[in-house]
Amino acid sequence: MSSTDAQLCEVFNSIQGEGLYVGERQTFIRFAGCNLSCQYCDSPAALNITKEYGVEKIPGTRQFAKYPNPAGINQLIELVNLFEAPKLISHSISLTGGEPLLQVDFLKNFIPALKEKVSLPIYLETNGVLPDHLSEIIDLIDIIAFGLKLPSATGLSPYWKKHRKALEIAYMKEVFVKVVFSRETKAKEIDEAVSLIIEVDNNIPLVLQPVTPSGSIKHRPNPDQIMAFYTLAKRKIKTVRVIPQVHKLMGVL
Ligand code: SF4
Predict the structure, then answer these.
(1) Using a 6 Å cutoff on CB, does residue 156 contact ligand 1?
(2) Nearest Cα to Cα of residue 77 among 140, 144, 27
(3) Which of 26, 110, 119, 164 is most buried, judged by most C-beta within 10 A?
């Protein structure tokens, strides 16, 4: 892990399509590499480190130029600055992936330097299973979109203990939890996720995200599941929303 260079997938400007900040414009820095392999992953291009990464030629146009990996701190700051100058049109800068926390040594140096040039909130999207990495940069983050992973949706083992530890750290800042669920998800699993959240604080908002069919996922959750899971969660958590992936409906990145 380099403290001065980042392995990236793409840098672009678009509309946030998930979670509590859905509809807000953001500049996205998508880091390459992930420690998980969720079966519903919609960013497969970000799972591996590649020789090049894409940079939108003009923010929001979906036309990309290729740059060589890795990206240096100053180079990336300049790119973000170009996207946002002179008007700061975006709500925030999204650090996404892949899993950005895998490059925590870079983030420790990059975020303070970025904040000197671009005065926008830093929004971290994380899979919530790297509590030690998160604790190293929590002071630098403003908003955390915390992905809590259900085995029924990811096809992976549960991560309850790591999630619990990471959520306690994330709670030091603004945080909401996003839970992707599938047709295979049962109420018991949602209940376990809800219990984990309320052990930290029932004021932490929960976004239930019905999985978008793609790849091996052939079906959406059914409406009865959606209604039942909302009711179950709302009995214990103050703010619960059901929000599917909206950027896919809009045709934006
Ligand atoms: S944690 Fe995110 S980027 Fe990684 S595999 Fe899962 S969905 Fe994809």
Answers:
(1) no
(2) 27
(3) 110
